[in-house]
Amino acid sequence: MKGKILMLSVLFITTSNLEVMAQKEKKYTELKTVTTSKIIHVPADTLWRIISHPNISLWSTLLDSTEYFGEEIFEGVPWSKRASVVNSKKHHESHEDLIFYDDSGREIKFASTKFPGFIISNETHWKVIDNGEKQSSLRTTTIMKMKKFQAFFLKKTMLKAINKNGEGIFYDIMYYAEKGKVSPSKASRIKELQKKQLHK
Fold it and tell me: Which residues of 96-120 are buried (b: 16+ CB within 10 A; e: fewer)?
């Protein structure tokens, strides 16, 4: 009986999330879908543990902090939302909803609204592919959406930003996964933030 209730709850929440996304679709026009894949020299399970962890600010140079919260919507996942601060002044803050999670298939998807929220909305898909004992591939797909008016003026700028951010993310992930510590860029960023805290 409990199993049926849980399944119905998951179905209801997932359906609600999809309905919210459908409503947002009316406000945005698809700008671009960017897919990138990189080989990383660690087992797929190791890489998946990094990707599926909600606190991606642990390794990402682009993020200063990540908070994760929300009700459990997929079995074994005790959180459903996360908010990431892109810099210490909180100029850029990303609010993400977990919309798909497949532990056995090593795939996870988020829908997010990024600053400024009235312009940009996107989905990020992460897929870890097993290439053997000590090698795996990470495939990311970003579906970026904007209102038609803003897209007309900002399309080229946003596409450059997507590609630049993607390069930084892959660098940080590869370094963290293969060496077991944050990249030099992330380490430098942490020192910079610590200095700011001391001056407060």
Answer: bbbbbbeeeebbbbbbbbbeeeebb
